[in-house]
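Q: Please design a sequence for this.
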């Protein structure tokens, strides 16, 4: 079996394989789940083949039998260009071929090529019951977080305006990083953003952003309004677990989004925000495992100590 970079002549075959293996888009699933799958796992990054996108195919007997796609940028995957992580967007094998024979060489090849580009880790989101999850784990991926996708056709906001709410400003970044470190377990922050610079690369901009400023910043939200009636608004949150705060921030975000469906992707440690959204008409669509594969050993940053001086 030969693993090589994909070219434009492969795209037709890649699309066929992607369509054949498209079980997440099954018609038996609710429309909202199928829409989330389309947003999260898409071939739109294939054209054009940008420098931030890696696409490799497995070829056997002169025919493409599988492919892997990864990217280091894009709002849908919460990364920015220049980051030292790659998100695996698609990993598929053609019907009639054994995934255990095709997928491991593809992942190994991707890891080797990524390491040559200075990438230090591969990330992937997979539903907890996804048949590919064991394949990723056998290839050295480990789970570092769990993510819930919540959706509502008509969110029921209560019109609350939190005390201290205002538009976010660029000079808030340092305080937002401190908020991130407070609400994020160390095992997660060490994977995604162990330093302020990493967090700046990882932190997703865009949309209308707000902070709750009460001497210190205790909450953040972002609202990405959809311009198409068939697509939901996207709500994002980072909130301290203070009494009533998550509900107030959720109410404000729902009001800013306006009428129409909305969804939000939240981690297992955002349980207070998840409960607040459930109380406002949101239900869980699916639960995803967030997996990481470290490609290079990282040395811990040495802490600066005080050196005694003697007169």
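A: Design:
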């Amino acid at each position: 079996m030969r693993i090589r970079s994909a070219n434009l002549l492969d795209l037709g075959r890649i699309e066929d394989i992607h369509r054949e293996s498209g079980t997440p888009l099954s018609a038996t699933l609710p429309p909202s789940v199928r829409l989330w799958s389309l947003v999260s796992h898409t071939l739109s990054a294939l054209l054009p083949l940008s420098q931030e996108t890696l696409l490799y195919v497995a070829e056997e007997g002169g025919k493409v039998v599988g492919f892997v796609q990864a990217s280091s940028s894009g709002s849908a995957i919460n990364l920015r260009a220049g980051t030292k992580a790659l998100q695996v967007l698609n990993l598929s094998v053609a019907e009639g071929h054994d995934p255990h024979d095709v997928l491991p060489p593809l992942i190994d090849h991707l890891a080797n090529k990524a390491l040559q580009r200075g990438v230090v880790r591969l990330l992937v989101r997979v539903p907890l019951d996804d048949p590919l999850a064991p394949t990723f784990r056998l290839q050295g991926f480990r789970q570092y977080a769990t993510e819930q996708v919540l959706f509502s056709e008509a969110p029921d906001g209560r019109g609350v305006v939190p005390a201290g709410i205002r538009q976010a400003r660029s000079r808030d970044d340092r305080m937002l990083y401190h908020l991130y470190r407070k609400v994020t377990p160390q095992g997660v922050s060490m994977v995604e953003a162990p330093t302020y610079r990493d967090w700046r690369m990882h932190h997703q901009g865009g949309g209308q952003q707000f902070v709750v400023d009460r001497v210190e910043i205790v909450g953040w939200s972002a609202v990405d309004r959809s311009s198409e009636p068939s697509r939901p608004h996207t709500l994002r949150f980072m909130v301290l677990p203070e009494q009533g705060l998550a509900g107030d921030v959720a109410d404000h975000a729902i009001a800013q989004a306006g009428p129409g469906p909305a969804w939000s992707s939240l981690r297992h440690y955002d349980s207070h925000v998840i409960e607040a959204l459930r109380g406002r008409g949101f239900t869980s669509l699916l639960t995803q495992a967030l997996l990481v594969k470290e490609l290079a050993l990282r040395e811990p940053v040495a802490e600066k100590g005080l050196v005694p001086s003697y007169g």
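Q: Thanks. Anything notable?
A: The mean pLDDT is 83. The first strand starts at residue 2 and ends at 5.
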